[in-house]
Specification:
The complex is a heterodimer of chains A (107) and B (77).
Chain A: H1 3-14, E1 18-22, H2 32-44, E2 49-52, H3 57-67, E3 74-77, E4 80-83, H4 85-93, H5 96-106
Chain B: H1 4-14, E1 19-24, E2 31-37, H2 46-56, H3 58-62, E3 68-74
Helix pairs in contact in B: 1-2
The chains are: A alpha+beta (107), B alpha+beta (77).
């Protein structure tokens, strides 16, 4: 990944307390896994920003290297990688996600 | 697409004690639900646990032989 892509990724992650790299948009997710994450965050009523990796091949590849995580979606909270769809679903089901997000948003 | 057995062997090469179950969600061999149970996950958070499995399947994911992978990791009871 070139340094320009890396700094773009870093500024995206910092642009919102909850930031999601996904396929498609909040209103039109293009993948079931990305849709899962959007639905969970909507259900918790938190505000979040997204980036459509399908619109940018460099970010799509770069984000996988950035987090050493080979799949999309990827959720970042306060700049820290929190997981993909499976982990978000698990954290939603065991109620740890709501708590983590509330703490992150309050700080 | 990949054969479920190939997924199991790739994971076991990286995580020898892994108990792996692979479910083919669509019948097409590229949308998989994989559960892995191993003592190697002991003390690791979920991100690290999933990274161990992703690393074992690096080639299959990078080539999109596996297009979608739903993953569940746990330690033996």
């Amino acid at each position: 990944m070139d340094s320009q892509t890396q700094s773009r990724i870093e500024s995206l992650i910092q642009s919102s307390p909850i930031f999601v790299f996904m396929k498609g948009t909040k209103l039109m997710p293009q993948c079931g896994f990305s849709n899962n994450v959007v639905q969970i965050l909507n259900a918790l009523g938190v505000s979040f920003e997204t980036f459509d990796v399908l619109s940018d091949p460099e970010v799509r590849q770069g984000i996988k290297e950035y987090s050493d995580w080979p799949t999309i979606p990827q959720v970042y909270v306060k700049g820290e990688f929190m997981g993909g769809s499976d982990i978000l679903i698990e954290m939603y089901n065991d109620s740890t996600l709501k708590e983590k997000l509330e703490i992150a948003l309050a700080s | 697409m990949v054969q479920p057995d190939a997924v199991t062997s790739a994971i076991r090469r990286a995580i020898p004690d892994a108990q792996v179950s692979v479910e083919d969600l669509t019948g097409g061999g590229d949308h998989l639900q994989v559960s892995v149970v191993s003592t190697a996950f002991d003390g690791l958070n979920r991100i690290r646990q999933h990274q161990l499995v992703y690393r074992a399947l690096r080639e299959e994911l990078a080539s999109e032989a596996i297009h979608a992978l739903a993953l569940n990791t746990s330690t033996p009871n």
